[in-house]
Amino acid sequence: SNAYRFCRFILENSNLPAAHFQAITCLRDTILKEWFNIPQEERENTRNFLFQFVVLKRSQDFVERQILQA
Length: 70
Hints:
The chain is mostly helical. The chain is built from 4 helices and no strands. Helix 1 packs antiparallel against helix 2 and helix 2 runs parallel beside helix 4. The two termini are about 15 Å apart.
């Protein structure tokens, strides 16, 4: 979806923790709403992307907690 691509763009290109938090919140809501319409491979790719984001970006705690809820 467009929301998914937009959120991922923000996470990949922004250095602002508040932007990361909002993008993760939007991504979580999108995933929950569209879960059964998302192909299995895309679900796995999203999960891997979020785990890598936590490891590589070393986000602030409030962002990491939001990622773990996604």
